[in-house]
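pasting for ref
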Amino acid sequence: MKTDILTIEDVLSVWQNKGIVRAAMEFDCGGDSMGNTHMRYYDEKDKEIEAWDLDDYFTDEVYRHIQFYENSDGYYHGEAGFVYVDYDEETKEFNFKKVSQSEYHETISKTFHYKLTKQEDVFLSTYVRNINGSNSDHAISYKTDFIMTDEHEVLVENLINKIVSFAEEAEINADGLEQEDFSWTTLVNEKPLTIENSNLHVEVNKTFLEYRDN
């Protein structure tokens, strides 16, 4: 029996002969595309039954009856879950119900003040225009030419490491689960590096992952 010519009568015959009472299509979509899907079939004791010959029919029917949100943006990233299928003896039709969660990523920025040592204050005020970084990399923009001494290199390396630790520990209140990756910059409100009373203004950006029932 070929799946591309199955009629509703064919499907119902297989459904009843195998003792299927419900089916479920597991799905995961996002990033502007549908990921892998998998059909499963169960009897009245919730035991899984092999019925791969019904897969194409029910997959097509799921897409015909169910709306999926595949298009992602910077905030919404997709959804995952199940489409449940059962047969209604009264209406003589299959019913389809989606139960899923949507995934959201929200990036929140907050400005903090990092206390500089006197040497760090003098070096940054004299030579540095801006610093951008993350938990794994950084870039420094200098505002003048100068000779980078060994002492300067040690100062910069230590300062970057301390800012990374400072940014990692910085607390931002938000819904969702805080992600490991983060970024930071001394370019705050489009202004170059700002130091007040040896306090370096640092903007920290953290992303939070939240799942919501649909």
